[in-house]
Amino acid sequence: MKMKCARCQKSAVFRNPAYCREHFISYIERKVWSTIARYKLIGKNDAIFVACSGGKDSTVCLHILSQRYQVEALAIDEGIAGYRDLTLLDLRAYCAAHRIPLHVYSIKHLFGKTLDELLKKGSGLPCTLCGAFRRSLLNRCARELGATVIATGHNLDDEAQSVLMNFLRNQLAVSARLGPATGLVKDLHFVPRVKPMYFCTEKEITAYAYLMNFSPTFTECPYTWDSYRNTVRAHLNTYEENHRGTKKALIRSFLHLMPMLKARYRTTSALSRCHDCGEPCAADRCQVCSQLKKFQMKKY
Ligand SMILES: [Zn+2]
Ligand SMILES: [Zn+2]
Prior knowledge:
Strand content: 5-15%
Oligomer: single chain
Bound molecules: zinc ion
Low-confidence stretches: none
Strand order of the largest sheet: 3-2-1-4-5
């Protein structure tokens, strides 16, 4: 039997909650607006840049924010052939169709080598390396473009995985940096990051992207090595299937703990400046410069 929308007589396009196309779309968008309001993620005078990959999460984030705010898209091209080049094509098409300014910075241009070229040398963990580069570059490029806030497409599933991973590995200091508004310290050189899709599940975002006719290329990064996250994701998904609401409950518990975690770790994690590049970091040398040294690339 076909399921009906909980709000009207049309047939449902989504289960849990059961909504028709129109009601589902407005349900997701209202969820984003209320997250922004409740956690004060975006202020009236903010210059908002959305960190985009061309994938569904960041594209949906860009799409929803652009309905109420003036936004620009910012992307980092790591130079991963057969993956990032394809997702960036989607992003360019989306931004052109919706007249949203897009800024793409390539690692090759900034550092002289693509991630592919780096990895041919054979060492280093791609996700760690890539993550360090992306975070640092996004911050630096957004800051230079005059951004006052960076919005990312992180969803409830991503956050639940991170929270659980940090518990399982006793890394509460890492969890202290999570939450709808990330980070612990205010720093002039650090552009605050926010997650407007914090309470949207992966399934919801996939459905929204599908209903909006976004056609992101569903390609996996060829370097996906974060096997621990994959294990945790699989366990959480199984658990969610058997005990509906688990992910949301995990996030709710975390949000109760979060103010205590932030207060506890705030004092010990004041940012210093990287000795090599001057970017904000927690140690003497930032992760990017450490990696650059390791791979003997030019400095930026
Ligand atoms: Zn309806
Ligand atoms: Zn540095």
